[in-house]
Protein 1
Amino acid sequence: MDKLHKYIESVEWRFAKTYADKSPHWYTVKKWNPDKEAAFEELVKFIRENGYEIMYFSTPFTVCHIGDYYYWTMDELVQDTDLINRALLVDGQPPKYSDPSSVPTPPKQNL
């Protein structure tokens, strides 16, 4: 787990402006850190092996809690995954996206 934390802390997490109101979150892209591709893939595998399914509106995603965030990917295969998303937990849980009041407000410095 220490390796995953080091990876998470060492890469850029860019705020996803397109979903700022509906689903505030950050993402990192595999190709931004070609020297850390193995760690990227380890995190993808960890999310899938240790996560659980939630519904984002009508789409199921496997999410995994690490620290104050939950993480998810969108591609079916690990080798096809080039992006990892993360969002703040609300009261220790992902927000319920059928209830817009549960969506967290991102910190101002990350906008």
Protein 2
Amino acid sequence: MYKHPEVKPKVNYMQELDTWLDELLTDKMIGAYTEIVVNANANARQDEVYTQFDGVYQEIKKALKAKMLESFHNGKKAAGVKPFLRQRQV
């Protein structure tokens, strides 16, 4: 018997972005919580915990900026506009 290939429904950009954000935030935040809070040394100082969470925050912020920049460039390509290239100052 012939099986039809599985057809995946089309996903628009915002749905794809929402899924990506859920994965990013879940992986990073739950991973950080597990590592810092659950597995933490009972003597861990509060400032060390905040520093570790700040590191995770910065990773998430960097990933978000990269995704937004990718989206910006894709939008420019779709519109037929060349991306602006900054000239290096010597």
Protein 3
Amino acid sequence: MTDKQRIYRLINAERQYQDCQHGTLDENSHSIGEWLIILEAELNEAKHSWVKMGEKAALFEILQFAAVASACLEQHIKVGWSLVRGKERDWEYNEVNIRVGRGTKR
């Protein structure tokens, strides 16, 4: 198993744990703004852990941050979205052909 595979398994395990603790996305969905607030709290916990307890504690909090970010993406990026790689990284919604890059609609 590669390091990347191992990391994604850890994120998935943390996602499952969070689903058990807080409910699934169907049971407890959030707006993107709410997810950003939750992510900010997780990041602050990681910074606090790093200052008070060191790198290993911070990594545990970063894993939680990654799992929360994953949940946000799972909820809000639906079938039909794909990442278009070019000079800029843009999101393109294939069904209605809306391209969004750097926070603006084109």
